[in-house]
Automatic annotation (TrEMBL):
Keyword Kinase: no
Subcellular location: Cell membrane
Lineage: Bacteria, Bacillati, Actinomycetota, Actinomycetes, Micromonosporales
Listed transmembrane segments: 24-49, 84-107, 119-140, 227-253, 273-295
Membership in a protein family: Belongs to the binding-protein-dependent transport system permease family.
Name of protein: Sugar ABC transporter permease
Matching Gene3D superfamilies: MetI-like
Main location: membrane
């Protein structure tokens, strides 16, 4: 004997939220959204107005249209800053990623004192950049500093790390990698913690080498976290003012002047607000393009 149970459609509970609840949530979120828009939108709109005016810090000035952007794009100083910003960003992003990946993989192994080692590795990221830059200045700034003195004792010429344009660029990039590796290590370590060990066990059974497991298991598994870290580090590097300004001030002979340092000098030292804000808007546009491109890679990434 078969018993069929039927139930009217109206008897089932409704899964959607009532309209009144949605309106209530909207009213609760509205003050935060309005405040967020005011905090971010007003400075953005005002900066956009300044970029098309020939004014000062206290006066908007006359409308000049796109003249500030034309002057910026035809300035040799701007393109020198673009070149160094690209070098600084590429080295900062991929150097810190490689270092963070290597340390994250090392910390997954059973090494003695792993917890203490991990804590010490976080110090470059935790210590304020003012303290770190002061320490690096003490290490390399003058011929009597420890590293130049060591090079001289070994029979080399005394290197002027912050006075030679090429060495200054290298020093700034290495310093950026040094303070950024712990951030990458934590981000990649969290991604690696989500990888199931049984995948590696199955690969061992199939005879895959450690290098093959790294290429075909580890990297694809952490690909989304990798793209996110690249987006964040790109933004950090392009907008990094204190690292460069505290270490070299943009010198020598503007060798380490990035776009953000050039924008600061243009606005607060040369008092040319329009061109300085135009530089900042060009930086923002480039960051948006890079972020969108990497975000599309995140959506395409799959395991």
């Amino acid at each position: 004997m078969t018993v069929t149970l039927t139930r009217a459609k109206s008897d089932f509970p409704r899964t959607g939220k009532p309209v009144s609840a949605r309106r209530m949530l909207l009213w609760l979120v509205a003050p935060s959204l309005v405040l967020l828009l005011l905090i971010n939108a007003y400075p953005l709109v005002y900066a956009a107005l300044q970029s098309v005016h020939d004014g000062s810090l206290i006066n908007t000035g006359d409308y000049v249209g796109l003249d500030n952007y034309r002057a910026t794009l035809t300035s040799p100083a701007f393109w020198r800053s673009v070149q160094f910003t690209l070098i600084f960003t590429v080295v900062g992003v991929f150097g810190s990623w490689l270092g963070g990946l290597g340390l994250a993989l090392l910390l997954r192994t059973r090494i003695p004192g792993r917890t203490v080692f991990k804590t010490l590795l976080l110090l470059p990221w935790v210590v304020p950049v003012v303290v770190s830059s002061t320490a690096w200045n003490w290490l390399v700034a003058t011929p009597q500093s420890p590293l130049p003195s060591l090079a001289q004792a070994l029979g080399f010429d005394t290197p002027l790390f912050l006075a030679d344009p090429v060495l200054a660029k290298i020093t700034v990039c290495v310093f950026k990698v040094w303070i950024s590796v712990p951030f990458m290590m934590m981000l990649i370590g969290a991604a690696l913690a989500g990888v199931d060990h049984t995948v590696y066990e199955a690969a061992d059974v199939d005879g895959a080498s450690k290098w093959q497991q790294f290429l075909h298991i580890t990297l694809p598994m952490i690909s989304r976290s990798t793209y996110i870290s690249w987006i964040l580090m790109t933004i950090f590097c392009v907008n990094d003012f204190p690292t460069i300004f505290l270490l070299t001030g943009g010198g020598p002979v503007d060798a380490t002047t990035s776009l953000v340092v050039l924008s600061y000098r243009t606005v607060f030292q040369n008092f040319q607000v329009g061109p300085g804000v135009a530089i900042a808007f060009l930086m923002t546009a480039s960051l948006v393009v890079v972020s969108v491109a990497l975000y599309r890679q995140i959506r395409k990434a799959h395991v």
